[in-house]
Amino acid sequence: MSINSYFVNGKRFGWGPGSASLNPEKAHLLKNYSQSKCLDIGFGSGIYTEYLRNLGHEVVGIDNEKRFVQLATKKYPEIEFVAGNALKLPFKKRQFDTAIAFDILEHVDDEAALEELFRVAKRVIFSVPLKNEKVLLRYGLSHAHYLDRTHRRAYSLKVIRQLINKKKSKTIYLEKSLPLSISGLLIEQLSGKNLFLEYLLKIILKPFLPEPPIFSTIFGVIER
């Protein structure tokens, strides 16, 4: 992936330096399941690396983009950030208790990445994009993560379970997360960011649109 792709995607999808904000559900996952010495892989803005440190953990951040390393080091000088690849981590065997891989596995060879994560840590906390559900396609909608052409794949719970079993790891936590409103997505699409039209559509359409649970992400915590 080019440097430009990292920065464009970081800004476009809200995870890069200057645009990222702490997601409460990801923060909750880290608070409940991160242990002792942590490695934050593909840290992007460094916001979760800092959060882990604030939880009292010893933490190191690693990212393939050297400019992210420079920016995070400047913003969070008390944290160690290094440049490196998720498929070839520059760390010793079981150097960490927890490896965090938010939105990483869909970009790489996920089997090889998990093998490398388990080489350096006994526990892995991850998030991956969820496949479109049929109800979304019925309304001509799709998850925003399909716009990111650097994604190799999206996942279902079945596929993730197969991957976990293949890596002979134990599932601590595995759930769909980050729920979306299908009526909200449709209204946003139809209104074209016209606030007055969006307001009218909410009044007219929302009572007639179904609201099944629609999720965009899978969160997991696994051990080996």
Summed up:
With 224 residues, the protein is α/β, with parallel strands linked by helices. The protein contains 9 helices and 7 strands; from the N terminus they run ααβαβαββαβααβααβ.
Low-confidence stretches: none
> What portion of the residues fall into strands of 2 or more residues?
15-25%
Q: Overall 3D geometry? A: globular
Determine the CATH superfamily.
Vaccinia Virus protein VP39
Mean of pLDDT: 87
What is the structural class? alpha/beta
**The CATH topology:** Rossmann fold
Write down the Rg. 19 Å
CATH-level-2 architecture: 3-Layer(aba) Sandwich
Order of helices and strands: HHEHEHEEHEHHEHHE
Separation, N- and C-terminal Cα atoms: 30 Å
Q: Strand order, main sheet: write it out.
A: 3-2-1-4-5-7-6
Helix content: 25-40%
Note the main sheet: 7 strands, mixed
CATH level 1 name: Alpha Beta
Could you explain how this protein is built, in words?
This protein is an alpha/beta fold and 224 residues long. It is built from nine helices and seven strands; from the N terminus they run ααβαβαββαβααβααβ. Helix content is 38%, strand content 22%. Helix 8 packs across helix 9. The two termini are 30 Å apart. The protein has a single domain, classed as Vaccinia Virus protein VP39 (Rossmann fold, 3-Layer(aba) Sandwich). The model has no long low-confidence stretch (mean pLDDT 87).
Layout of SSEs?
Blueprint lengths: L2 H11 L10 H10 L4 E4 L5 H8 L4 E5 L2 H10 L4 E4 L12 E7 L7 H11 E9 L4 H5 L18 H10 L3 E11 L1 H10 L3 H11 L8 E10 L1
Helix pairs in contact: 8-9
